[in-house]
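Board notes (copied after class):
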Amino acid sequence: MSEAFEHLWTPYRMAYIRGAGKPTGAHDCPFCAIPAMSDEDGLIVARGTTVYAVLNLYPYNAGHLMVVPYRHVPDYTDLTDAEVAELGAVTQTAMRVVREVSGAHGFNIGMNQGSVAGAGIADHLHQHAVPRWGGDTNFMPVLGLTRVLPQVLGETRDLLAAAWPEPGTGTRPAPAQPGGQA
């Protein structure tokens, strides 16, 4: 193999791995700050009453969404009944929309509760919805230890947001442009 292909670099990840910029409380929590941003700047796909859906800034796969309560709580047991219900409903909608837009074959849905369980931001609960396709684990993550995303996050956000049903109506907006992939 050529020397040029022996290393794939993603240096922006090192700050994340080392914990730089990780929140120390609600005052610097990115999940608390995101709702104050525009949907485009915050990569917000949809806003609900108690939770919102946002693209993961460090996605495992294209279209990797997170459903996040607005309240700064660390544990699933801290959610109210209304938050649990909306978190589930928004997760279902996320799955439907991602399937519609990108043809996902399956999903990994889950939460990492606490740092020891792998939560990158343990102080603010968030549920991952990671779309999967047959053969999506190709040689790049296995050999190159990197992921290939076919689209920049802003474009993915735009496609998913355009396909998201109007709140409370279940009515879908006009279909996304053909050929788009989340």
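Comment from the instructor: Helices lie at 12-18, 30-33, 39-42, 81-102, 139-144, 153-163. The two ends are 32 Å apart (CA to CA).
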